[in-house]
Amino acid sequence: LGTYQSEVGRTSCFVCGGNLVTKRSGAVTFQECETKVQCSPGHYYNTSTHRCIRCPMGTFQGEFGQNYCVSCPGNTTTDFDGSTNIMQCKNRQCGGELGDF
After folding, report:
1. Under a CB-based contact definition with an 8 Å cutoff, are residues 79 and 61 in contact?
2. 59 is in which domain, residue-wise?
3. Which residues, at least 6 apart from 7, have a Cβ–Cβ distance to it below 8 Å?
4. Where is each Tyrosine-protein kinase ephrin type A/B receptor-like domain found (predicted)?
5. Which of 24-28, 86-90, 97-101 is modeled with the greatest confidence?
6. Pair (3, 46) in one structural domain
7. Are 29 and 45 contained in the same domain?
8. 97 pLDDT exceeds 60?
9. 48 shares its domain with 91
10. Which residues contact 49 (CB under 8 A, 6 or more apart)?
11. Residue 17 and residue 94: Cα distance in Å, rounded?
12. What's 97's DSSP letter?
């Protein structure tokens, strides 16, 4: 627990770091590493600084206690950092919200 491996055939695992743990053995992504700090939606837990950081522009996080932000799909971005929902991702060219095309 506390490690993951995303590459098939590897014999060693990556450490989650920052005192993060995994719910189960056999974790395959960093996203399966869980934080002990419950950061608010729109934030992620930074394992280097041990702090909750706002998700940067172009990303969002809708859940509590995550260690990553989700990238906006395709050619979309957000107007601000700390976004909490995919609906805040907007088309870069026309400024319309995702789904309003």
Report:
1. no
2. 37-101
3. none
4. 2-33, 42-89
5. 86-90
6. no
7. no
8. no
9. yes
10. none
11. 40
12. B
